[in-house]
Amino acid sequence: SYQVQLINTYYLFPVSPPVSVCLCQVPEPDKELVEKYEAMKSVFYKRLMNAYGKVQAAVGPMTENLGQGQGQAAKDYIEELQGNPKFLSAVKIGTGLAQEAAPLVDKARMAGLGLYGHYVRPHVGTYLDEAITSIKVYLDKVLPAEE
Residue 50 in contact with residue 147, Cβ under 8 Å? Predict the structure, then answer.
């Protein structure tokens, strides 16, 4: 039973996986992989912005039909929040954290791409690329990047 499990594992992963990985020496991602990732990320954000525009266009007429009392109450609440010192300091803290975290997120992303490119991509890269290519066809119909 154990031998059969080892044989099946070998056929799933023909190259033995590394026993340990030193996190001090993370491989650099290939330039081609980084460019491909950045292009996909850009298209993803374009799809999100396009979807947001469609939702905004669909919801816009409904918000105009709301009663004046409800709209005025929301406007008053937003103005009150903008003058609240606790809210303003929370916004400043959040903005500062986001600015300081950006380089760490970028470093983690590059490390993740490097690990993927070195350890995972040789085994599943072709299948993943084919899957993404086939999914793009449906996404272009349902959620296009550009109108």
Answer: yes
